User: Which sequence fits this backbone?
């Protein structure tokens, strides 16, 4: 297989601009036989070329490759020798990716817009991310064919694995050797051969089994590296950079998904670009307390490493001070950082750089086409989707999310130890007025539904995560959710029902079981999830399959990475319970579900209710749009009482 790659235009905008700004100290102090090489990185772009949220149909300053490109231009101006690399997850993840895959296709002569933008930026190499396979291998092949730079992956084989990693029939080349000429401190040109090797999470064969089963196989990342890095050195690489579409985690296991920390222990690797987790490294926030990880210096087992956020939110940067002597190159020093494209000012995102005009121009026609695409119906809903009553009764805007999550999760469990267990789904309402105002509700009429409407159904870019919990934990999960209700006195009229300080995103509805909530009982948990009333039980008549739930039985619950990571402090629901972190966002799953079904019926199935309390009424506030749906709430009687403050209306419900 060809492995040597000739020099391409990857030093774009560097030497010519270097005199206009201060050079990095590694360059300023370099002597003869010493050079400064700046490795620039992006990861998890997910087709976010522009700073535009297609779901919300408005600009967003927190992401976009056109902004990252401006950072890259500035970083190139600070150094005479630069190399731009990408760490995978390029062609899927935003509506632009879906537009290309589902509407436009990749006909001959058409280059995928994110690849076109990357060509304009002068990338030197990239690897494959797990989302590269979401549209199938044929689509992937055609997308990669448009790149002016190579893709590498050392742990993805065609067909079955061989007995020896070096004998695997790899899907693409395992590595590339980039022949470069670097200028040393004395102004001399010195040749260097930079080896770039890539890795993908082995779990792709599970996550995209329908498209990959029998066609490709994956190896453990570290196992593949131990075999191929020595070969890369033997082929003449003076420096080795690993493109690891894999995150950082403790506890080495076979076929580890987030294996970058242990990849760093493979001899011969000089630098690592990590990704996949949509986090930032170095920095104090995301990876503190893991042995072998230096969050300040930016090293994994002493090897310089960077993780550049996601969607172009950051540019990764590894500055290498290289010395040449005795016929070989060595890393004498390094510095690592992740530069953001924006900063926070309260809740507002303030852009730090403008769009890079050339990159924006490269993909602008596809941006315009994507806008038309997201505004075009992708399916139909046979009933209205509204969230005005989501806190007081089972709700269609939550129901469709649960339906989509269970549809997506069921195939992921096939062939696993969890197959055959009861599958439940937890989802919460997001747009329910409150401090966001009386118009802050989902309200999609029956009929056509567009991709941008999905933003009303799922606001956050969470990823699907499955947990295995006991029936007793299911009950506690619901008890924690039931804290949203104020305690009600039996027999009293018009008592406020909702605790306005309880976040709606912590009011999980669990589909697949039936239950009632008795608000006359004290809340078992306080607003922070602490057990404050051990003898209290609000959740009553909890059943699975029509029978009282077996609290000793095991249930699989589809949720999101926030909840499964301990978000909201739900008892028994944390990373220890997680059994599968899926590669897709919950929002994308809803889009796929609608696209697959054609017509969806989101009517709430009434699996939960407030317990009957004779001669008792409660009140709550909702937006004026709720009036149109008063007759559509199943199993309860609701009437409007009159106006409330800030444009809201007050409603009454009999318990």
Assistant:
């Amino acid at each position: 297989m060809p492995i040597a790659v000739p020099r391409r235009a990857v030093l774009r905008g560097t030497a010519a601009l270097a005199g206009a700004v201060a050079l990095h100290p590694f360059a300023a102090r370099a002597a003869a036989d010493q050079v400064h090489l700046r490795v620039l990185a992006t990861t998890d772009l997910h087709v976010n070329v522009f700073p535009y949220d297609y779901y919300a149909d408005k600009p967003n300053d927190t992401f976009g490759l056109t902004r990252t490109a401006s950072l890259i231009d500035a970083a190139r101006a600070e150094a005479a020798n630069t190399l731009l690399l990408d760490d995978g997850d390029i062609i899927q993840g935003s509506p632009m990716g879906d537009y290309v895959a589902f509407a436009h296709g990749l006909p001959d002569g058409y280059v995928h817009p994110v690849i076109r933008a990357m060509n304009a930026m002068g990338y030197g190499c990239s690897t494959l991310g797990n989302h590269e396979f979401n549209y199938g291998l044929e689509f992937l092949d055609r997308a990669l064919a448009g790149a002016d730079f190579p893709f590498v992956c050392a742990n993805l084989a065609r067909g079955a694995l061989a007995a020896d990693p070096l004998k695997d029939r790899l899907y693409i080349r395992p590595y590339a050797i980039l022949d470069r000429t670097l200028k040393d401190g004395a102004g001399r040109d010195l040749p260097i051969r930079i080896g770039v090797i890539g890795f993908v999470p082995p779990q792709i064969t599970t996550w995209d089994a329908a498209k990959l089963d029998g066609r490709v196989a994956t190896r453990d990342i570290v196992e593949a590296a131990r075999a191929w890095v020595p070969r890369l050195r033997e082929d003449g690489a003076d420096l080795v950079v690993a493109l690891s579409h894999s995150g950082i985690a403790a506890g080495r296991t076979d076929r580890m998904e987030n294996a970058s920390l242990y990849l760093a222990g493979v001899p011969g690797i000089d630098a690592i670009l990590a990704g996949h987790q949509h986090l930032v490294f170095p920095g104090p926030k995301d990876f503190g307390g893991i042995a072998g990880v230096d969050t300040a210096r930016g090293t994994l087992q002493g090897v310089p490493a960077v993780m550049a956020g996601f969607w172009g939110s950051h540019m990764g940067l590894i500055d290498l001070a290289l010395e040449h002597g005795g016929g070989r190159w060595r890393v004498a020093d390094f510095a690592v950082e992740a530069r953001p494209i924006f900063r926070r000012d309260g809740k507002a995102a303030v852009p730090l750089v403008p769009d890079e005009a050339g990159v924006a121009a490269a993909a602008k026609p596809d941006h315009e086409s994507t806008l038309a695409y997201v505004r075009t119906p992708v399916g139909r809903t046979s009933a209205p989707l509204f969230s005005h009553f989501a806190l007081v009764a089972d709700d269609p805007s939550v129901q469709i999310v649960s339906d989509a999550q269970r549809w997506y999760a069921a195939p992921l469990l096939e062939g696993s130890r969890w197959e055959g267990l009861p599958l439940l789904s937890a989802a919460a309402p997001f747009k329910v007025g409150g401090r966001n105002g009386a118009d802050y509700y989902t309200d999609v009429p029956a009929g056509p539904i567009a991709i941008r409407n999905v933003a009303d159904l799922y606001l956050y870019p969470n990823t699907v995560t499955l947990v295995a919990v006991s029936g007793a934990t299911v009950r506690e999960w619901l008890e924690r959710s039931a804290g949203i209700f104020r305690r009600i006195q039996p027999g009293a009229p018009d008592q406020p029902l909702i605790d306005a300080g309880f976040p709606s995103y912590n009011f999980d509805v669990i589909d697949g079981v039936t239950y009632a909530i008795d608000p006359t009982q004290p809340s078992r948990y306080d607003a922070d999830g602490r057990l404050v009333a051990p003898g209290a039980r609000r959740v009553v008549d909890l059943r699975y399959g029509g029978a009282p739930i077996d609290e000793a039985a095991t249930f699989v619950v589809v949720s999101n990475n926030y909840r499964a990571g301990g978000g909201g402090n739900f008892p028994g629901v944390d990373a220890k319970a997680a059994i599968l972190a899926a590669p897709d966002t919950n929002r994308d799953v809803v889009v796929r579900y609608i696209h697959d079904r054609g017509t969806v019926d989101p009517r709430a199935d009434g699996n939960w209710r407030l317990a009957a309390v004779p001669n008792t009424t409660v009140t709550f506030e909702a937006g004026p749009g709720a009036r149109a749906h008063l007759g559509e709430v199943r199993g309860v009687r609701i009437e409007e009482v009159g106006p409330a403050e800030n444009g809201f209306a007050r409603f009454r419900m009999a318990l």
